[in-house]
Design brief:
about 260 residues, ABC transporter involved in vitamin B12 uptake, BtuC, globular
Length: about 260
């Protein structure tokens, strides 16, 4: 069954969707959209590192994404406005990554596939990495769910309950880095943040509890991945951007529904 490239692509999209959904909820609640953007842009630098020292792409992207996320956590609130800092690091990481790739000798790199994804080229080995990473993210978020939620809603109340908000921030940082590493093959560095944020934002008007929002976000992400794959195949459009475009249409629909309901 897995010899069919469309079936492999579908499983890859589902794996990324279920990993991104609960994490995306925390990104939306904490208003960390630019944080996710900066971490995903650093993925191209991770590709260059992996190719330069002959590492698996997943390993290089994971290392750089984790370093970028940790750097952002350390520098935020230290004299530079967070928006300015995130903007500088996001675009600088992408620029340095593109420059670094151009210096690699005797290596031909299809940059477009890393920028916007190439889900149709997912292999069985890629599926193992994607689902292994997705399950790791789900396990990590499920394990720390209560602590993550309390530190998100009220850091002061979290401290009163012996929950360290900085530690929970590091948990989110690790989960975000893993998600970026597994998603780059599916939607690419430029669209990873969109797949994190849009399903969660679309789910927000439909949910009355945090757990419900995470489940609905996963369903929206899965529908976007599978629907975008089918639309892309039918219309011969780029698959990663089509997946994100469908998620954006669902977001617009839920926002319109909320507006009509008053």
């Amino acid at each position: 069954m897995l010899d069919d490239f469309l079936v492999r692509a579908a499983f890859a999209g589902l794996g990324v969707a279920i990993a991104a959904a609960p994490l995306g909820c925390f990104v939306v609640w904490r208003r960390m959209a630019y944080f996710g953007d900066a971490t995903s842009h650093a993925a191209i630098l991770g590709v260059a590192l992996a190719l330069a020292i002959d590492l698996p792409i997943f390993g290089g992207v994971l290392v750089i994404a984790l370093l970028m996320a940790l750097l952002l956590s350390l520098l935020t609130g230290r004299g530079v406005g967070s928006d300015a800092l995130l903007g500088v690091l996001a675009h600088a990481a992408l620029a340095f990554g593109l420059v670094a790739v151009s210096f690699l000798p005797n290596v031909r790199v299809d940059l477009l596939s890393y920028l916007v994804g190439d889900i149709l080229a997912v292999s069985k080995g890629d599926l193992l990495i994607i689902w292994g990473g997705a399950l790791a993210v789900l396990g990590l978020v499920a394990w720390r769910w209560s602590a993550l939620l309390s530190s998100t809603l009220s850091p002061d109340m979290a401290r009163a309950s012996d929950v360290d908000p900085k530690r929970e921030q590091l948990v989110l940082t690790l989960a975000l880095a893993i998600t970026v590493a597994v998603a780059i093959k599916v939607v690419g560095a430029l669209l990873i943040a969109a797949l994190l944020i849009i399903p969660a934002a679309a789910a927000r008007p439909l949910a009355r509890a945090p757990e419900t929002m995470a489940v609905i976000a996963a369903l929206i992400g899965a529908a976007s991945a599978l629907g975008g794959l089918l639309v892309s195949f039918a219309l011969d459009t780029p698959t990663g951007p089509t997946i994100v475009s469908l998620a954006a249409v669902i977001f617009a629909s839920t926002q319109t529904m909320r507006a009509l309901q008053g």
